[in-house]
Amino acid sequence: MSVLHNIYFSGKGTTKICAECIGAGLHMEEKSYDWRKQPCETKLEIPREDVLLFSMPVYGGFIPRMCAQLAMNLKGSQTPAIIAAVYGNRHYDDALLQMKDLLTAQGFWVAAAGAFLAEHSIFPAAAAGRPDKKDREAMAAFSAECSRMLNELDKAQYGEIQVPGKAGYDAQSFKGVPFHPDGDKACNGCMACVDACPKKAVDSEHPCETDGELCISCGACISVCPTGARNYHGDAYQAAGAQFVERCSAYRSPETYFADRIGISEV
Ligand SMILES: Cc1cc2nc3c(=O)[nH]c(=O)nc-3n(C[C@H](O)[C@H](O)[C@H](O)COP(=O)(O)O)c2cc1C
C-alpha cells in the first residue's frame, strides 16, 4: 500500500486546510508533516511507490525561504509529487515553478500543480473567507484528477509538467515585509506565541516584542494567541492594508496544471 506524505508549512492555518482538503481527496494512507511545528531537519527519503503532496504558502511570489532550504532534505526516486501553492489573492508569481524545480532536483516527478486561494495572512480583508465552497470544490476536483493519474501510472507514460513562472527567477529577491506582529496590553503572558514561532522571534522575557530580523511574518503567533493581543499594529500597517485591499480584492479562481500523457507504457 503506498503512502501519501502530506508536507506543508502553515503560519495562519489556511495552507494546512488546503493540504488536508487535497490530501483527503486522494484517499490514501497518509502521513502528515507540519514544517512549522516540526521542520524536517534530517533527510527524508520518499520511495517511488509513495506520493508526495507538497503545499506551501506564497511569500513574495515564492515559497518561504526556510521551506526552500528544508526541501533540500527531501529525496525522491522519480517519486510522484503534487504541489500546491496557497496565496492571498495578489498572485503566486514564480512559486509553482520554484516548487517544481526544487522537487525535480531532489528526484521527484511533479505530476500535478495547483494554485489555490486563501485569506491573506497579513491583510485578512483581502480574500476574506477563502478557501470558500468553490475553492473546496476545485480542490476536490484537483484531487480526483490526481488520483486518476496516479492510478494509471503503470499503464500510461507522462511527460514533464508545465507551470507558469519566469525562467531565471531569483528566489532570494524577496527580502520579507516591513510588518511584524507584536503584542498589546491584552497579553496575559501565556507564552503560546513564544512556542509557536518557527523562527524564535518572540523572546519569553518580552513576549509583546518581536525580533524583526528573525520574524518572517507567518502569523503563527497571531493564530495561537488566546486573547487577541498579538496582531499587526500601527498606522503604516493600516495604510498599507487599505491600499492592498483596494488593489487585490477582485475574486481570483484556483488554477490547476497536470503533466501531459505522452503514451502508453509497454507491457
Ligand atoms: C511574508 C508574506 C508574504 C506574502 N506574499 C504574498 C504574495 O506574494 N502573493 C499573495 O497573493 N499572497 C501573499 N501572502 C499571503 C499568503 O500567501 C496567504 O495568506 C497564505 O494563505 C498564507 O498561508 P497560511 O494561512 O498557511 O499562513 C504573503 C504572506 C506573507 C506572510
Brief summary:
By secondary structure, the protein is an alpha/beta fold. The protein folds into two domains: 3-169 and 251-264, Rossmann fold (3-Layer(aba) Sandwich), CATH 3.40.50.360; 192-247, Alpha-Beta Plaits (2-Layer Sandwich), CATH 3.30.70. It is built from seven helices and ten strands.
Q: What overall geometry do the principal axes of the alpha carbons give? A: globular
Roughly how much helix do the residues carry, as a percent range?
A: 25-40%
| Overall pLDDT | 96
CATH architecture of the largest domain: 3-Layer(aba) Sandwich
CATH level 1 name of the largest domain: Alpha Beta
Measured distance between first and last alpha carbons: 22 Å
What gyration radius follows from the Cα positions, in whole Å?
19 Å
Present as ligands are:
flavin mononucleotide
As residue ranges, the low-confidence spans are none
Helix-strand topology string = EHEEEHEEHEHEHHHEE
Q: Report on the biggest sheet.
A: 6 strands, mixed
Figure out the total of helices. Answer: 7
- Overall structural class, as computed from helix and strand content, comes to alpha/beta
The percent range for strand residues is: 15-25%
How many domain regions?
Answer: 2
Using the coordinates shown, work out and report the CATH topology of the largest domain.
Answer: Rossmann fold
Q: For the largest beta sheet, what order do the strands appear in spatially?
A: 2-1-4-6-7-9
Within CATH, the superfamily of the largest domain carries the name Flavodoxin domain
